[in-house]
Amino acid sequence: MTASTSSTPEPAHRPARPGAYPDGRTPLADAVLAVARRDIATFHALPLSHGRSIRDSHMRETYEALFGAAQLAADVSYSGTMLDSFFRPRGPLREAQRLAARSFGADATFFLSAGTSTANRVALTAMTRPGSRVLADRSCHQSVHFALNSLGVSVAYAPMQRCCEDCPRTYADLPRLLEMFRAAAVEGRPYDTVVLSAVSYDGVRYDLPTVLAELAAVHPGVAVLVDEAWGAAHRFHPRLRPLTALHAVETLRAADPRFTMNVAVTHSAHKSMSALRQGSYLHLIGDGEARERTAQALFQHHTTSPSWPVLASLDLARLQAETEGEALLGRSLGLARTLRVELATDPRLSAYRPLGPDGHLTDPAQLVSDDPTRVLVDISALGITAADFRRMLFDEYALYVARESGDAVLFHIHIGVDEATLLRLLDALRTIQRTYRSASEALAAGTSEHFIIAYPPGIPITVPGEKLCERTLSQIDTLRSSGCEIYTLRNPTVSAGALAAQAAATGALPVPAGHLAAPPPTSERLAGAAAAVSAAGTTAATVSAAAATAVATAVATS
Protein backbone atom coordinates (compact mmCIF):
# COMPACT_ATOMS: atom_id res chain seq x y z
CA MET A 1 0.00 0.00 0.00
CA THR A 2 1.22 3.51 -0.75
CA ALA A 3 1.93 5.93 2.02
CA SER A 4 -1.13 7.47 3.57
CA THR A 5 -2.06 11.04 2.82
CA SER A 6 -3.87 11.25 6.13
CA SER A 7 -3.76 9.43 9.41
CA THR A 8 -6.58 7.25 10.64
CA PRO A 9 -8.16 7.57 14.07
CA GLU A 10 -6.67 5.42 16.76
CA PRO A 11 -8.76 2.24 17.16
CA ALA A 12 -11.01 2.49 20.17
CA HIS A 13 -11.35 0.02 23.01
CA ARG A 14 -15.11 -0.33 23.16
CA PRO A 15 -16.88 -0.07 26.52
CA ALA A 16 -19.12 -2.73 27.96
CA ARG A 17 -22.00 -0.27 27.79
CA PRO A 18 -22.61 3.34 26.64
CA GLY A 19 -21.85 5.95 29.26
CA ALA A 20 -19.13 3.94 30.97
CA TYR A 21 -16.68 6.87 31.02
CA PRO A 22 -18.06 9.45 33.47
CA ASP A 23 -14.72 11.24 33.78
CA GLY A 24 -16.11 14.40 32.21
CA ARG A 25 -13.38 14.73 29.59
CA THR A 26 -14.05 16.80 26.48
CA PRO A 27 -10.51 17.21 25.13
CA LEU A 28 -11.36 19.02 21.92
CA ALA A 29 -13.90 21.37 23.46
CA ASP A 30 -11.43 22.21 26.21
CA ALA A 31 -8.69 22.95 23.67
CA VAL A 32 -10.93 25.22 21.58
CA LEU A 33 -12.07 27.03 24.71
CA ALA A 34 -8.46 27.56 25.77
CA VAL A 35 -7.48 29.29 22.53
CA ALA A 36 -10.75 31.28 22.51
CA ARG A 37 -9.84 32.73 25.91
CA ARG A 38 -6.48 34.00 24.63
CA ASP A 39 -6.33 37.33 22.83
CA ILE A 40 -4.58 35.89 19.78
CA ALA A 41 -4.07 38.09 16.73
CA THR A 42 -3.92 36.15 13.46
CA PHE A 43 -1.94 36.89 10.33
CA HIS A 44 -3.49 33.89 8.58
CA ALA A 45 -7.22 34.11 7.88
CA LEU A 46 -10.64 34.59 9.44
CA PRO A 47 -10.56 38.35 10.16
CA LEU A 48 -13.80 37.92 12.13
CA SER A 49 -12.12 35.76 14.79
CA HIS A 50 -12.38 37.44 18.21
CA GLY A 51 -14.49 40.11 16.48
CA ARG A 52 -11.37 41.98 15.36
CA SER A 53 -12.63 43.01 11.92
CA ILE A 54 -15.83 44.54 13.34
CA ARG A 55 -14.54 46.30 16.44
CA ASP A 56 -15.08 49.73 14.90
CA SER A 57 -17.86 48.71 12.52
CA HIS A 58 -21.41 50.06 12.67
CA MET A 59 -22.45 46.39 12.19
CA ARG A 60 -20.74 45.18 15.35
CA GLU A 61 -23.92 45.23 17.45
CA THR A 62 -25.78 43.04 14.95
CA TYR A 63 -22.89 40.58 14.70
CA GLU A 64 -22.64 40.25 18.46
CA ALA A 65 -26.41 39.97 18.85
CA LEU A 66 -26.44 37.09 16.39
CA PHE A 67 -23.27 35.24 17.35
CA GLY A 68 -22.13 36.53 20.73
CA ALA A 69 -18.58 37.32 21.73
CA ALA A 70 -17.90 33.73 22.77
CA GLN A 71 -18.85 32.30 19.37
CA LEU A 72 -16.70 34.88 17.58
CA ALA A 73 -13.75 34.03 19.82
CA ALA A 74 -14.16 30.26 19.31
CA ASP A 75 -14.36 30.44 15.52
CA VAL A 76 -10.65 30.18 14.75
CA SER A 77 -8.47 29.08 11.83
CA TYR A 78 -5.60 27.56 13.82
CA SER A 79 -4.36 24.14 12.81
CA GLY A 80 -1.40 21.85 13.24
CA THR A 81 0.35 21.96 16.59
CA MET A 82 -1.42 25.21 17.59
CA LEU A 83 -4.70 23.29 18.00
CA ASP A 84 -4.77 20.10 15.93
CA SER A 85 -4.73 19.02 12.32
CA PHE A 86 -8.15 18.05 10.98
CA PHE A 87 -6.79 15.52 8.49
CA ARG A 88 -3.78 14.35 10.57
CA PRO A 89 -5.07 14.66 14.13
CA ARG A 90 -2.46 14.04 16.80
CA GLY A 91 -3.85 15.89 19.79
CA PRO A 92 -7.25 16.82 21.23
CA LEU A 93 -9.22 16.00 18.06
CA ARG A 94 -7.78 12.49 17.93
CA GLU A 95 -8.56 11.96 21.61
CA ALA A 96 -12.12 13.31 21.20
CA GLN A 97 -12.72 10.98 18.26
CA ARG A 98 -11.36 8.04 20.24
CA LEU A 99 -13.73 8.79 23.13
CA ALA A 100 -16.66 9.02 20.71
CA ALA A 101 -15.78 5.67 19.14
CA ARG A 102 -15.71 4.05 22.58
CA SER A 103 -19.04 5.62 23.50
CA PHE A 104 -20.86 4.59 20.33
CA GLY A 105 -19.22 1.18 20.08
CA ALA A 106 -17.25 1.77 16.88
CA ASP A 107 -13.72 0.76 15.91
CA ALA A 108 -13.04 4.35 14.81
CA THR A 109 -14.98 7.60 14.57
CA PHE A 110 -14.39 10.67 12.41
CA PHE A 111 -15.80 14.12 13.23
CA LEU A 112 -17.14 16.19 10.31
CA SER A 113 -18.24 19.82 10.28
CA ALA A 114 -19.76 19.68 6.78
CA GLY A 115 -22.85 17.59 7.50
CA THR A 116 -23.90 14.01 6.90
CA SER A 117 -24.28 14.54 3.16
CA THR A 118 -20.49 14.81 3.11
CA ALA A 119 -20.15 11.89 5.53
CA ASN A 120 -22.20 9.69 3.18
CA ARG A 121 -20.05 10.65 0.21
CA VAL A 122 -16.86 9.97 2.17
CA ALA A 123 -18.12 6.56 3.28
CA LEU A 124 -19.23 5.50 -0.21
CA THR A 125 -15.97 6.68 -1.77
CA ALA A 126 -14.09 4.51 0.71
CA MET A 127 -16.38 1.47 0.38
CA THR A 128 -16.76 1.23 -3.39
CA ARG A 129 -14.55 0.95 -6.45
CA PRO A 130 -15.41 1.71 -10.07
CA GLY A 131 -17.41 -1.16 -11.52
CA SER A 132 -18.45 -2.62 -8.16
CA ARG A 133 -22.07 -3.62 -7.55
CA VAL A 134 -24.19 -1.69 -5.06
CA LEU A 135 -27.64 -2.52 -3.71
CA ALA A 136 -29.26 0.61 -2.30
CA ASP A 137 -32.35 1.37 -0.33
CA ARG A 138 -34.46 3.56 -2.65
CA SER A 139 -35.52 5.73 0.29
CA CYS A 140 -31.96 6.92 1.01
CA HIS A 141 -31.09 10.58 1.27
CA GLN A 142 -30.26 12.44 -1.93
CA SER A 143 -26.58 12.59 -0.95
CA VAL A 144 -26.38 8.79 -1.35
CA HIS A 145 -27.97 8.87 -4.80
CA PHE A 146 -25.72 11.70 -5.97
CA ALA A 147 -22.59 9.99 -4.67
CA LEU A 148 -23.44 6.65 -6.28
CA ASN A 149 -24.18 8.39 -9.55
CA SER A 150 -20.66 9.83 -9.65
CA LEU A 151 -18.59 6.85 -8.45
CA GLY A 152 -18.78 4.67 -11.57
CA VAL A 153 -20.57 1.83 -9.78
CA SER A 154 -23.45 -0.37 -10.89
CA VAL A 155 -26.48 0.42 -8.72
CA ALA A 156 -29.66 -1.57 -8.15
CA TYR A 157 -32.39 -0.05 -6.02
CA ALA A 158 -34.66 -2.00 -3.70
CA PRO A 159 -38.26 -0.76 -4.04
CA MET A 160 -40.15 1.32 -1.52
CA GLN A 161 -43.53 0.69 0.00
CA ARG A 162 -46.13 2.80 1.76
CA CYS A 163 -47.15 2.13 5.33
CA CYS A 164 -50.90 1.91 4.61
CA GLU A 165 -53.78 3.93 3.16
CA ASP A 166 -54.21 5.68 6.48
CA CYS A 167 -50.57 6.69 6.92
CA PRO A 168 -48.39 8.46 4.31
CA ARG A 169 -44.97 7.17 5.49
CA THR A 170 -42.79 5.25 3.04
CA TYR A 171 -39.73 3.08 3.58
CA ALA A 172 -37.66 0.38 1.91
CA ASP A 173 -39.20 -2.98 1.17
CA LEU A 174 -36.60 -4.78 3.27
CA PRO A 175 -37.82 -8.34 2.57
CA ARG A 176 -37.48 -7.58 -1.14
CA LEU A 177 -34.03 -6.04 -0.59
CA LEU A 178 -32.88 -9.25 1.10
CA GLU A 179 -34.39 -11.33 -1.71
CA MET A 180 -32.40 -9.33 -4.26
CA PHE A 181 -29.24 -9.74 -2.19
CA ARG A 182 -29.67 -13.52 -1.87
CA ALA A 183 -30.49 -13.93 -5.57
CA ALA A 184 -27.35 -12.04 -6.61
CA ALA A 185 -25.19 -14.26 -4.38
CA VAL A 186 -26.77 -17.44 -5.81
CA GLU A 187 -26.06 -16.18 -9.32
CA GLY A 188 -22.39 -15.75 -8.42
CA ARG A 189 -22.55 -11.96 -8.77
CA PRO A 190 -22.93 -10.79 -5.17
CA TYR A 191 -23.33 -7.14 -4.31
CA ASP A 192 -20.16 -5.57 -2.97
CA THR A 193 -21.91 -2.82 -0.99
CA VAL A 194 -25.36 -2.35 0.53
CA VAL A 195 -26.74 1.05 1.56
CA LEU A 196 -29.53 1.35 4.14
CA SER A 197 -31.40 4.35 5.50
CA ALA A 198 -32.13 3.02 8.96
CA VAL A 199 -34.09 5.82 10.66
CA SER A 200 -36.37 7.83 8.39
CA TYR A 201 -37.39 11.45 8.57
CA ASP A 202 -40.99 10.28 9.08
CA GLY A 203 -40.19 8.03 12.03
CA VAL A 204 -39.63 4.55 10.58
CA ARG A 205 -36.87 2.39 12.10
CA TYR A 206 -35.33 -0.68 10.47
CA ASP A 207 -34.74 -4.00 12.19
CA LEU A 208 -30.99 -3.75 11.70
CA PRO A 209 -30.05 -6.78 13.80
CA THR A 210 -32.05 -9.02 11.47
CA VAL A 211 -31.02 -7.29 8.25
CA LEU A 212 -27.30 -7.15 9.04
CA ALA A 213 -27.29 -10.76 10.25
CA GLU A 214 -28.88 -11.90 6.99
CA LEU A 215 -26.41 -9.92 4.87
CA ALA A 216 -23.45 -11.33 6.79
CA ALA A 217 -24.75 -14.89 6.51
CA VAL A 218 -25.23 -14.67 2.74
CA HIS A 219 -22.05 -12.74 1.86
CA PRO A 220 -19.64 -12.03 4.75
CA GLY A 221 -17.45 -9.83 2.57
CA VAL A 222 -20.14 -7.26 1.82
CA ALA A 223 -19.60 -3.67 2.99
CA VAL A 224 -22.60 -1.84 4.45
CA LEU A 225 -23.31 1.87 4.83
CA VAL A 226 -26.07 2.64 7.33
CA ASP A 227 -27.36 6.19 7.09
CA GLU A 228 -28.67 6.57 10.63
CA ALA A 229 -28.74 10.36 10.46
CA TRP A 230 -31.86 10.83 12.59
CA GLY A 231 -30.95 8.21 15.19
CA ALA A 232 -27.65 9.30 16.73
CA ALA A 233 -29.13 9.72 20.21
CA HIS A 234 -30.88 6.33 20.13
CA ARG A 235 -27.65 4.66 21.26
CA PHE A 236 -28.10 6.09 24.74
CA HIS A 237 -31.48 4.71 25.80
CA PRO A 238 -32.18 1.01 26.47
CA ARG A 239 -35.54 1.09 24.70
CA LEU A 240 -34.09 2.61 21.52
CA ARG A 241 -30.61 1.05 21.48
CA PRO A 242 -31.44 -2.52 20.31
CA LEU A 243 -32.29 -1.48 16.74
CA THR A 244 -29.27 0.79 16.23
CA ALA A 245 -26.62 -0.23 13.73
CA LEU A 246 -23.59 -0.23 16.01
CA HIS A 247 -25.38 -2.16 18.74
CA ALA A 248 -26.50 -4.70 16.12
CA VAL A 249 -22.87 -5.17 15.05
CA GLU A 250 -21.76 -5.56 18.68
CA THR A 251 -24.37 -8.29 19.12
CA LEU A 252 -23.30 -10.08 15.95
CA ARG A 253 -19.64 -9.91 16.94
CA ALA A 254 -20.39 -11.29 20.38
CA ALA A 255 -22.29 -14.19 18.83
CA ASP A 256 -19.66 -14.92 16.17
CA PRO A 257 -16.07 -13.70 16.61
CA ARG A 258 -15.50 -14.46 12.93
CA PHE A 259 -17.78 -11.57 11.95
CA THR A 260 -15.65 -9.49 9.56
CA MET A 261 -18.13 -7.28 7.70
CA ASN A 262 -17.06 -3.67 7.21
CA VAL A 263 -19.84 -1.30 8.34
CA ALA A 264 -19.96 2.50 8.18
CA VAL A 265 -22.60 4.42 10.12
CA THR A 266 -23.33 8.11 9.62
CA HIS A 267 -25.00 10.25 12.30
CA SER A 268 -26.30 13.80 11.99
CA ALA A 269 -25.51 14.64 15.58
CA HIS A 270 -27.24 18.00 15.32
CA LYS A 271 -30.59 16.32 14.53
CA SER A 272 -30.95 14.45 17.81
CA MET A 273 -28.02 15.46 20.06
CA SER A 274 -26.72 18.77 21.43
CA ALA A 275 -24.36 19.49 18.53
CA LEU A 276 -24.16 22.52 16.30
CA ARG A 277 -25.66 22.46 12.82
CA GLN A 278 -23.69 20.31 10.34
CA GLY A 279 -21.97 18.38 13.11
CA SER A 280 -21.74 14.77 11.96
CA TYR A 281 -20.14 11.51 13.08
CA LEU A 282 -18.81 8.86 10.72
CA HIS A 283 -18.33 5.60 12.61
CA LEU A 284 -16.49 2.58 11.26
CA ILE A 285 -16.53 -1.10 12.05
CA GLY A 286 -13.82 -2.94 10.15
CA ASP A 287 -10.18 -3.48 9.43
CA GLY A 288 -7.31 -1.05 9.16
CA GLU A 289 -7.55 -0.82 5.38
CA ALA A 290 -11.17 0.36 5.63
CA ARG A 291 -10.13 3.06 8.09
CA GLU A 292 -7.27 4.17 5.87
CA ARG A 293 -9.49 4.38 2.79
CA THR A 294 -12.01 6.41 4.80
CA ALA A 295 -9.34 8.83 5.99
CA GLN A 296 -8.19 9.37 2.42
CA ALA A 297 -11.76 9.89 1.22
CA LEU A 298 -12.26 12.46 3.99
CA PHE A 299 -9.21 14.32 2.67
CA GLN A 300 -10.80 14.33 -0.80
CA HIS A 301 -14.27 15.55 0.11
CA HIS A 302 -14.29 17.52 3.35
CA THR A 303 -13.60 21.25 3.42
CA THR A 304 -10.04 22.13 4.38
CA SER A 305 -11.51 24.89 6.58
CA PRO A 306 -13.45 22.90 9.19
CA SER A 307 -15.44 24.71 11.84
CA TRP A 308 -13.74 24.17 15.18
CA PRO A 309 -16.84 25.23 17.15
CA VAL A 310 -18.87 22.57 15.29
CA LEU A 311 -16.22 19.92 15.92
CA ALA A 312 -16.01 20.92 19.59
CA SER A 313 -19.79 20.62 19.89
CA LEU A 314 -19.51 16.98 18.75
CA ASP A 315 -17.18 16.38 21.69
CA LEU A 316 -19.59 18.06 24.12
CA ALA A 317 -22.64 16.27 22.67
CA ARG A 318 -20.96 12.92 23.15
CA LEU A 319 -20.27 13.56 26.83
CA GLN A 320 -23.80 14.84 27.45
CA ALA A 321 -25.24 11.75 25.75
CA GLU A 322 -23.08 9.49 27.92
CA THR A 323 -24.01 11.14 31.20
CA GLU A 324 -27.52 12.50 30.60
CA GLY A 325 -28.77 10.84 27.43
CA GLU A 326 -30.88 8.12 29.03
CA ALA A 327 -32.73 10.61 31.23
CA LEU A 328 -33.27 13.11 28.40
CA LEU A 329 -34.50 10.45 26.00
CA GLY A 330 -36.72 9.02 28.71
CA ARG A 331 -38.34 12.44 29.02
CA SER A 332 -38.78 12.60 25.23
CA LEU A 333 -40.46 9.21 25.15
CA GLY A 334 -42.78 10.24 27.97
CA LEU A 335 -43.71 13.54 26.31
CA ALA A 336 -44.39 11.84 22.98
CA ARG A 337 -46.66 9.39 24.77
CA THR A 338 -48.43 12.29 26.52
CA LEU A 339 -48.99 14.05 23.20
CA ARG A 340 -50.58 10.95 21.69
CA VAL A 341 -52.82 10.42 24.72
CA GLU A 342 -53.96 14.05 24.75
CA LEU A 343 -54.78 13.97 21.04
CA ALA A 344 -56.73 10.75 21.48
CA THR A 345 -58.72 11.70 24.60
CA ASP A 346 -59.17 15.49 24.85
CA PRO A 347 -62.35 16.59 23.01
CA ARG A 348 -60.77 20.01 22.52
CA LEU A 349 -58.21 18.21 20.32
CA SER A 350 -60.65 15.96 18.47
CA ALA A 351 -59.73 17.47 15.09
CA TYR A 352 -56.26 15.89 15.33
CA ARG A 353 -55.68 12.20 14.71
CA PRO A 354 -52.31 10.62 15.59
CA LEU A 355 -51.03 8.15 12.98
CA GLY A 356 -48.93 5.44 14.64
CA PRO A 357 -47.23 3.99 16.51
CA ASP A 358 -50.45 2.32 17.63
CA GLY A 359 -51.38 -0.21 15.00
CA HIS A 360 -49.43 0.75 11.88
CA LEU A 361 -45.95 -0.75 11.69
CA THR A 362 -46.68 -3.88 13.68
CA ASP A 363 -45.92 -6.67 11.19
CA PRO A 364 -42.49 -8.05 12.15
CA ALA A 365 -42.12 -9.61 8.70
CA GLN A 366 -41.71 -6.10 7.25
CA LEU A 367 -38.61 -5.56 9.43
CA VAL A 368 -39.66 -2.01 10.34
CA SER A 369 -41.12 -0.33 13.41
CA ASP A 370 -42.08 3.13 14.64
CA ASP A 371 -39.70 5.69 16.09
CA PRO A 372 -41.57 6.48 19.33
CA THR A 373 -40.05 9.98 19.55
CA ARG A 374 -42.02 11.07 16.47
CA VAL A 375 -45.75 11.80 16.38
CA LEU A 376 -47.40 12.00 12.96
CA VAL A 377 -50.75 13.79 13.15
CA ASP A 378 -53.56 14.04 10.59
CA ILE A 379 -55.12 17.54 10.62
CA SER A 380 -57.58 17.17 7.73
CA ALA A 381 -60.60 17.72 10.01
CA LEU A 382 -59.49 21.34 10.49
CA GLY A 383 -60.29 22.13 6.87
CA ILE A 384 -56.95 23.82 6.22
CA THR A 385 -53.88 22.55 4.42
CA ALA A 386 -50.92 21.14 6.28
CA ALA A 387 -48.74 23.86 4.76
CA ASP A 388 -51.01 26.62 6.12
CA PHE A 389 -51.16 24.85 9.49
CA ARG A 390 -47.34 24.79 9.69
CA ARG A 391 -47.13 28.45 8.72
CA MET A 392 -49.72 29.38 11.33
CA LEU A 393 -47.86 27.56 14.10
CA PHE A 394 -44.65 29.36 13.14
CA ASP A 395 -46.02 32.88 12.58
CA GLU A 396 -48.58 33.05 15.35
CA TYR A 397 -47.38 30.67 18.05
CA ALA A 398 -43.58 30.56 17.52
CA LEU A 399 -43.68 26.78 17.06
CA TYR A 400 -41.83 25.14 14.17
CA VAL A 401 -42.86 21.88 12.53
CA ALA A 402 -40.54 20.88 9.70
CA ARG A 403 -42.45 18.10 8.01
CA GLU A 404 -45.81 17.78 6.28
CA SER A 405 -47.02 14.75 4.38
CA GLY A 406 -50.38 15.00 2.69
CA ASP A 407 -52.83 16.06 5.41
CA ALA A 408 -50.41 15.13 8.19
CA VAL A 409 -47.67 16.97 10.06
CA LEU A 410 -44.79 15.45 12.01
CA PHE A 411 -43.81 16.45 15.55
CA HIS A 412 -40.28 15.35 16.53
CA ILE A 413 -40.10 15.15 20.32
CA HIS A 414 -36.31 15.46 20.60
CA ILE A 415 -34.27 16.10 23.74
CA GLY A 416 -34.73 19.87 23.35
CA VAL A 417 -38.50 19.57 23.88
CA ASP A 418 -39.49 19.89 27.53
CA GLU A 419 -42.79 19.88 29.42
CA ALA A 420 -43.35 23.62 29.00
CA THR A 421 -42.80 23.38 25.24
CA LEU A 422 -45.31 20.56 24.94
CA LEU A 423 -47.89 22.56 26.91
CA ARG A 424 -47.37 25.47 24.50
CA LEU A 425 -48.02 23.15 21.59
CA LEU A 426 -51.16 21.68 23.12
CA ASP A 427 -52.55 25.15 23.91
CA ALA A 428 -51.90 26.24 20.33
CA LEU A 429 -53.58 23.13 18.92
CA ARG A 430 -56.68 23.74 21.04
CA THR A 431 -56.89 27.37 19.95
CA ILE A 432 -56.52 26.46 16.29
CA GLN A 433 -59.22 23.80 16.60
CA ARG A 434 -61.66 26.27 18.17
CA THR A 435 -61.02 28.64 15.31
CA TYR A 436 -61.04 26.32 12.34
CA ARG A 437 -63.14 23.28 13.18
CA SER A 438 -66.44 25.13 12.67
CA ALA A 439 -65.20 26.38 9.32
CA SER A 440 -64.50 22.83 8.22
CA GLU A 441 -67.96 21.74 9.31
CA ALA A 442 -69.47 24.61 7.32
CA LEU A 443 -67.99 23.20 4.10
CA ALA A 444 -70.08 20.03 4.16
CA ALA A 445 -72.85 19.01 1.80
CA GLY A 446 -76.37 19.95 2.88
CA THR A 447 -78.26 23.09 3.79
CA SER A 448 -75.83 25.76 4.88
CA GLU A 449 -76.28 28.12 7.80
CA HIS A 450 -73.24 30.13 6.71
CA PHE A 451 -72.09 32.79 4.41
CA ILE A 452 -69.29 31.18 2.40
CA ILE A 453 -67.27 33.94 0.79
CA ALA A 454 -64.26 33.72 -1.52
CA TYR A 455 -61.81 36.61 -1.26
CA PRO A 456 -61.00 37.95 -3.71
CA PRO A 457 -63.48 39.06 -5.04
CA GLY A 458 -65.53 38.99 -1.82
CA ILE A 459 -68.79 37.71 -3.32
CA PRO A 460 -70.68 35.02 -1.35
CA ILE A 461 -70.63 31.59 -2.92
CA THR A 462 -73.58 30.63 -0.72
CA VAL A 463 -75.80 32.46 1.75
CA PRO A 464 -77.56 30.94 4.78
CA GLY A 465 -80.43 28.72 3.70
CA GLU A 466 -78.87 27.58 0.42
CA LYS A 467 -77.79 24.02 -0.20
CA LEU A 468 -74.18 23.00 -0.65
CA CYS A 469 -73.98 20.48 -3.47
CA GLU A 470 -70.96 18.63 -4.84
CA ARG A 471 -70.67 21.12 -7.67
CA THR A 472 -70.45 24.03 -5.22
CA LEU A 473 -67.91 22.19 -3.08
CA SER A 474 -65.84 21.55 -6.21
CA GLN A 475 -66.03 25.26 -7.03
CA ILE A 476 -64.77 26.08 -3.54
CA ASP A 477 -61.82 23.68 -3.97
CA THR A 478 -60.97 25.31 -7.31
CA LEU A 479 -61.08 28.80 -5.82
CA ARG A 480 -58.90 27.75 -2.90
CA SER A 481 -56.36 26.14 -5.27
CA SER A 482 -56.22 29.37 -7.29
CA GLY A 483 -55.18 31.33 -4.21
CA CYS A 484 -58.51 32.59 -2.88
CA GLU A 485 -59.19 32.62 0.83
CA ILE A 486 -62.50 31.08 1.88
CA TYR A 487 -64.39 32.72 4.77
CA THR A 488 -67.40 31.37 6.63
CA LEU A 489 -69.79 33.33 8.89
CA ARG A 490 -72.58 31.67 10.87
CA ASN A 491 -75.50 32.72 13.10
CA PRO A 492 -76.12 29.61 15.24
CA THR A 493 -79.22 31.01 17.03
CA VAL A 494 -81.21 31.44 13.83
CA SER A 495 -82.02 28.47 11.61
CA ALA A 496 -81.09 28.40 7.96
CA GLY A 497 -84.79 28.34 7.07
CA ALA A 498 -85.54 31.42 9.14
CA LEU A 499 -82.62 33.29 7.61
CA ALA A 500 -83.77 32.34 4.14
CA ALA A 501 -87.32 33.48 4.87
CA GLN A 502 -86.06 36.75 6.30
CA ALA A 503 -83.88 37.31 3.25
CA ALA A 504 -86.84 36.70 0.93
CA ALA A 505 -89.03 39.12 2.87
CA THR A 506 -86.55 41.95 3.42
CA GLY A 507 -83.78 41.52 0.90
CA ALA A 508 -81.26 41.79 3.73
CA LEU A 509 -79.13 39.16 5.45
CA PRO A 510 -78.39 40.27 9.04
CA VAL A 511 -75.34 38.71 10.67
CA PRO A 512 -75.40 39.70 14.38
CA ALA A 513 -71.92 40.26 15.75
CA GLY A 514 -72.47 38.36 18.98
CA HIS A 515 -72.98 35.02 17.25
CA LEU A 516 -69.94 34.79 15.02
CA ALA A 517 -67.09 32.30 15.38
CA ALA A 518 -63.96 32.87 17.43
CA PRO A 519 -61.37 35.26 15.95
CA PRO A 520 -58.45 34.05 13.93
CA PRO A 521 -55.11 35.15 15.28
CA THR A 522 -53.67 37.51 12.67
CA SER A 523 -54.52 41.09 11.84
CA GLU A 524 -53.96 40.33 8.15
CA ARG A 525 -56.74 37.77 8.17
CA LEU A 526 -59.07 40.22 9.94
CA ALA A 527 -58.42 42.83 7.29
CA GLY A 528 -59.03 40.30 4.54
CA ALA A 529 -62.33 39.23 6.09
CA ALA A 530 -63.50 42.82 6.43
CA ALA A 531 -62.68 43.42 2.79
CA ALA A 532 -64.60 40.29 1.85
CA VAL A 533 -67.82 41.48 3.51
CA SER A 534 -67.34 44.98 2.16
CA ALA A 535 -67.11 43.58 -1.35
CA ALA A 536 -70.11 41.32 -0.69
CA GLY A 537 -72.19 44.42 -0.04
CA THR A 538 -72.14 45.22 -3.75
CA THR A 539 -74.10 42.06 -4.55
CA ALA A 540 -77.85 41.48 -4.33
CA ALA A 541 -77.42 40.50 -0.70
CA THR A 542 -77.28 43.50 1.61
CA VAL A 543 -74.91 43.06 4.54
CA SER A 544 -75.58 45.21 7.55
CA ALA A 545 -73.02 47.59 9.01
CA ALA A 546 -73.01 45.53 12.19
CA ALA A 547 -71.99 42.48 10.22
CA ALA A 548 -69.16 44.37 8.55
CA THR A 549 -67.90 45.43 11.96
CA ALA A 550 -68.27 41.94 13.38
CA VAL A 551 -66.35 40.28 10.57
CA ALA A 552 -63.24 40.60 12.69
CA THR A 553 -64.42 37.36 14.26
CA ALA A 554 -64.96 35.49 11.00
CA VAL A 555 -63.44 32.05 10.59
CA ALA A 556 -60.95 31.86 7.75
CA THR A 557 -59.89 28.72 5.94
CA SER A 558 -57.24 28.57 3.33
TrEMBL record:
Annotated Pfam families? OKR_DC_1
Q: Which SUPFAM superfamilies match?
A: PLP-dependent transferases
Q: Taking every annotated instance into account, which residue ranges of this chain make up the domain Orn/Lys/Arg decarboxylases family 1 pyridoxal-P attachment site?
A: 26-357
- Name a GO molecular-function annotation: arginine decarboxylase activity
* Annotated keywords: Lyase, Pyridoxal phosphate
Enzyme class, spelled out: lyase
Query: Residues annotated as region Disordered?
Result: 1-25
Cofactor requirements of the protein: pyridoxal 5'-phosphate
Q: What is this protein called?
A: Arginine decarboxylase
Tell me the organism. Answer: Streptomyces venezuelae (strain ATCC 10712 / CBS 650.69 / DSM 40230 / JCM 4526 / NBRC 13096 / PD 04745)
What lineage, starting at the top, does this entry show? Answer: Bacteria, Bacillati, Actinomycetota, Actinomycetes, Kitasatosporales
